[in-house]
Write a structure and sequence with these properties.
Blueprint lengths: L1 E5 L5 E6 L7 E6 L2 H6 L2 E3 L5 E6 L5 E4 L7 E5 L7 E6 L2 E7 L11 E6 L6 H11 L3 E4 L5
Parallel strand pairs: 3-10, 5-11
Antiparallel strand pairs: 1-2, 2-5, 3-4, 4-9, 6-7, 7-8, 8-9
Length: 143
């Protein structure tokens, strides 16, 4: 299954590929303060692949907080956060915002709240390495 997504203005785009095609897509509504304020609901697949394309890198803010182990890619023009990445062991992992999906019926999303409070940094990175998208590449010209 190929899922296209983007920020509102289209500066940050992604193509998320999940194989095999799922019946539903788990979507985690994170309870951290940043995600609460931005309506962050994230999807990933440990067998997935992600291609990120950025039209103008000058219009992307990369924000980190807390443990500084995740980078939120925020479009400066429209304010949308379509992608979050995390560097673990020399590899980039990612989750994508289901709110940025272009071609997925809402009924296919299995939304559930999730809290990572009390999780240590090592536990957090291990969880991401197990569950986030492991094949992340930027399109030529993307950063």
């Amino acid at each position: 299954m190929q899922i296209d997504g983007r920020c509102h203005c289209g500066n940050i785009k992604f193509r998320f590929v999940i194989e095999p095609v799922p019946r539903t897509i788990p979507a985690r509504a994170c309870s951290c303060t940043f995600c609460q304020k931005h309506g962050g609901v994230w999807a990933s697949s440990p067998q997935g692949a992600l291609r990120i394309s950025i039209a103008n890198d000058e219009h992307v803010n990369r924000y980190q907080f807390g443990t500084r182990t995740a980078t939120f890619h925020i479009c400066k023009r429209c304010g949308v956060v379509p992608v979050v990445t995390s560097g673990i062991g020399g590899r980039t992992y990612a989750v994508v915002s289901v709110n940025a999906f272009e071609n997925v019926p809402a009924a296919m999303l299995d939304k559930a709240p999730v809290s990572f409070d009390g999780e240590g940094e090592g536990e957090r990175l291990a969880r991401r390495a197990r569950n986030w998208i492991p094949d992340v590449r930027y399109a030529e010209g993307g950063a």
